[in-house]
TrEMBL record:
Keywords: Antibiotic resistance, Cell membrane, Membrane, Transmembrane, Transmembrane helix, Transport. This is Transport permease protein. GO terms for biological process: response to antibiotic. It is found in: Cell membrane; Membrane.
Length: 270
């Protein structure tokens, strides 16, 4: 007698109407609707930095002169960097710690892949949610900047879309890196990467203050790209050079999403 082994292949999400990632966004929204304090926690760290350093230290530092000769206050110099950091925080922590728990402990993605959802749907859904979280942080931070009079240009209308781009870069990269994590101890490397970027990406002083030997290292970090974009938009010092920084962030996010989807397929569809 010949034994036939049948394998049940889930119907691709596109056959059922596509957009499988939106179901993951909806799921996360319903979850955080009851935990909104946790959701907002990432917004307060850059806000506290702005209030303590951008305002308190500003009384000692005085004004800053930008590369084009524009003079702004220290708080107006620091605030765009805090805005970029806010978008980074919202995206990176949602796409690392939370995704690791869902993947390794809750086994949530194993259940999802038993449905028509595919690894790419999971990657796009989780990254989209991280974008929304980063965008919420950024929108609130922009409102604070506006109330404090730290926005001096109409170009700042593009600051929120720029924050979404920053969130895309860190969400995609964060999710890709999470698929390589083996235990919670590995997340020490996340802090080891995020904290130096936060402190040294021309956040609190111009990149020109660094020695030439390490300045190039600062200029290739992801957060620096976001800081340059946000600072240019909020101060009105825009130029074609911003497209280079934007392309860097878009490529980083897209490549990260692709790696994450491929890794999820290998890890969960064995």
């Amino acid at each position: 007698m010949t034994t036939l082994t049948a394998r049940v292949v889930p119907v691709p999400a596109r056959v059922l109407g596509g957009g499988g990632g939106r179901h993951i966004v909806e799921r996360n929204f319903l979850l955080y609707r009851r935990s909104w304090i946790v959701f907002l926690s990432g917004f307060f760290e850059p806000l506290f930095y702005l209030l303590s350093i951008g305002i308190g230290v500003a009384q000692l530092v005085g004004d800053f002169t930008l590369s084009d000769g524009t003079t702004i206050g220290y708080a107006a110099f620091v605030a765009p960097a805090m805005l970029a950091s806010s978008a980074m925080n919202g995206a990176i922590f949602d796409s690392t710690y939370n995704i690791f728990f869902r993947m390794k402990y809750a086994k949530l993605y194993d259940s999802m892949l038993a449905t028509p959802l595919r690894p790419w749907d999971i990657a796009t859904g989780e990254v989209t949610w991280a974008l929304l979280r980063g965008a919420c942080y950024s929108a609130m931070f922009i409102a604070v900047m506006l109330g404090m009079g730290l926005i001096t240009s109409w170009w700042a209308l593009l600051a929120l879309p720029a924050s979404v781009l920053i969130a895309l870069a860190f969400a995609g990269a964060g999710m890709a890196l999470t698929t390589f994590m083996r235990s919670w101890q590995d997340f020490e490397f996340v802090q080891l990467a995020v904290m130096p970027m936060f402190l040294f990406s021309a956040t609190f002083y111009p990149v020109e203050t660094y020695p030439e030997a390490i300045r190039w290292l600062v200029e290739i970090t992801p957060l620096y790209q976001g800081v340059v974009i946000e600072r240019a938009l909020t101060t009105g010092t825009v130029g074609w050079f911003l497209l280079v920084h934007a392309f860097y962030l878009a490529a980083m996010g897209t490549i990260g999403m692709y790696i994450a989807s491929q890794r999820l397929g290998k890890l969960l569809l064995k």
